[in-house]
Amino acid sequence: MADSARILVIESVAAEPKWLSRLLSDAGYQVNGVSDVPGAVTALGRSPHSAPSPHLVVWHDPKRRGELKASEADFKTHLQRLDVPLLWLLPADHDHRAVETWARDCLVDYLAAPYTPADLLARVKLHLTYQHRHQTRTAARAATAPAPSGHDMAQAAIFNAIPDLLLRLRSDGTYLDRLSGSDVTRLPGTDGYEGRKVQDLLPAELIDLRLGHIEQALATGEMQRYKQQFEINGTLHHEECRVIKLTEDEVLVIVRDITERELANQRIQQQLKQERAIAHITDQIHRSLELETIFKAVVQTVVGNPGL
User: Fold this and answer.
1) Residues 6+ apart with CB under 8 A from 236
2) Is the pTM here over 0.70, yes or no?
């Protein structure tokens, strides 16, 4: 099992350089080492889309006592999303209550100093054995699960046929699921929504707009509607967004591409503007046949309606 087990190691720069990675590599594990939690968030964010998920995360920071900073909430989100256990190596004076708070949300275990390399390897082996059995049982249940019913297949077909983009999000802007969206133009770099945040995927000018309407929908329970626009490769895209409260901490965001509708409306408005301008000039001609009066009317109309 050691030959195939993947471990993500977080080693603080304050710790003895790479001792943990060396220990686990020498034991035969596939080790991916990062120096801090933001590095771990980046590594976990690539899984399982462009990189295989680790079987275990081992975090060593001798200065930690079990607390989680607000800026590290994404770390917990990825652990929950991937269902990956965390083994936390803590100092002797750690705060066990903080660790227990973590354990309510994630698969968290800790090993407090002092401990020997043998103690650490034994705990790692224990977690990997459990994780292997858990994944084996999950795969077995999936293999014996009944085939999708006609109702399930019909429901899936309906979702796939919906042109709108349907997104399920938490109040903090974390994407939980993408249900459809075949006709909505995606922004570059937005493949793989799950576990990522609005702040990671949307342009800066759209982030506050999205989060503000999520907050409003959760506070009032009423559907929020707004429009947004963005440019991709020189082309301006228009979207209409609706935000609907699902639970106290979740919303459904429905995004519809209205680019063609907006362009058609702009063409209609332009045509109406031209017709009003022509009518104004015609009226001035009827009122006076003096060339200077007609010329002034034409100039005023053109200046007052740029783009004619």
Assistant:
1) 229, 230, 259
2) no
